[in-house]
């Protein structure tokens, strides 16, 4: 087994969150009713934990994810209407080509790649 980490993200609506992450390339690997395990088959893993009413205000959700992917533009094309920053994806001063979206529970999701 390789050394890796998996994020467990609270989801106010599991179906809505699952559909959102499907746009990013995830599919359901296991479903335990209130808890779903998602993966993309290439290394991304994400667990969704059903938390009804979470968060009280979507804009108050403090969680965030960064998904590294080779073809940033292909992923951006699937969620173009949800991209937060106008004109993104684009190169950032810290050396990434990226864009950001919010999931249905307000989790900030940045998708990008390192450019060097």
TrEMBL record:
Transmembrane segments: none annotated. GO terms for molecular function: dioxygenase activity; lyase activity. InterPro entries: Glyas_Bleomycin-R_OHBP_Dase (IPR029068), Glyas_Fos-R_dOase_dom (IPR004360), VOC_core (IPR037523). Keywords: Dioxygenase, Lyase, Oxidoreductase. Residues 1-114 form the VOC domain. It comes from the Bacteria. This is Catechol 2,3-dioxygenase-like lactoylglutathione lyase family enzyme. It comes from Sphingomonas pseudosanguinis. The lineage of its organism: Bacteria, Pseudomonadati, Pseudomonadota, Alphaproteobacteria, Sphingomonadales.
């Amino acid at each position: 087994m390789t050394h890796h980490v998996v994020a467990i993200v609270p989801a106010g609506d599991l179906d809505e969150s699952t559909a959102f992450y499907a746009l990013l390339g995830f599919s359901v690997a296991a479903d335990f009713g209130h808890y779903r395990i998602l993966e993309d088959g290439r290394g991304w893993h994400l667990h969704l934990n059903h938390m009804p009413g979470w968060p009280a205000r979507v804009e108050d959700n403090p969680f965030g994810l960064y998904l590294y992917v080779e073809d940033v533009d292909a992923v951006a094309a699937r969620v173009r209407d949800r991209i937060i920053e106008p004109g993104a994806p684009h190169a950032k001063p810290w050396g990434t080509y990226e864009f950001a979206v919010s999931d249905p529970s307000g989790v900030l999701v940045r998708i990008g790649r390192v450019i060097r």
